[in-house]
Every structure is written in structure tokens, then in C-alpha cells.
Amino acid sequence: MEGIFSRCAGYVFQRVGKIAATAIGGGFLLLQIANHSGYVQVDWKKVEKDVNKAKKHLKKKANKAAPEINTFIEEATDFIKRNIVLSSGFVGGFFLGLAS
């Protein structure tokens, strides 16, 4: 039962990942074509300013969240160590789902 669930999870992640990558890449490509053709003008200085502002904000949030993430990672590692058979079965099925 676990193998079926993990394989399905891997398959879903593969499909969702491909769809998301296609949508993001296609949107970026269309934006670049529209920009090059003159339909859209992008203020790249403003984009750079906004990206830098977002990076600073994310860095500040990441520093606050770091202890919570470390705790989660430690708990997950302990769970995996205690349930190695269950974990390895899930990982194997997950990778089979990604490959199919």
C-alpha cells in the first residue's frame, strides 16, 4: 500500500512540476517577445529595485524562521531514523513515480 501511495505522490509531483515549469517559462518567453517587439516596455531599473527589496525582506524573514526550520529538520531526521523501513519504501516508490 505504501509503495502505491509513494509512487502516486512521485507521479503527481512530476506532472505538477512540468506544468509549472512550462507555465513560468512560457510566460517569461512571451514577456520577452512582447518587450522586444515594443508591445510592452519594462522598467528594468524598477524591477531590479523591487527584486533587491524582496531579497532583503526574504533574508530578514529567513533569519527569523531559521530556528523553526532547524527544529523541523531535526524532527524529520529523528522520524526517518526510527522508521527507516517505512521511509526507504516511500522514497523508492516516490522515485519510481517521478521516473514514470
From TrEMBL:
Compartments where located: Mitochondrion outer membrane
InterPro entries: FUN14
Origin superkingdom: Eukaryota
Protein name per its UniProtKB record: FUN14 domain-containing protein 1
Bilayer topology annotation: Multi-pass membrane protein
Keyword check for Transmembrane: yes
Main location: mitochondrion
Source organism (scientific name): Ameca splendens
Keyword Transferase: no
Family: Belongs to the FUN14 family.
Assigned keywords, A-Z: Autophagy, Membrane, Mitochondrion, Mitochondrion outer membrane, Transmembrane, Transmembrane helix
TM ranges: none
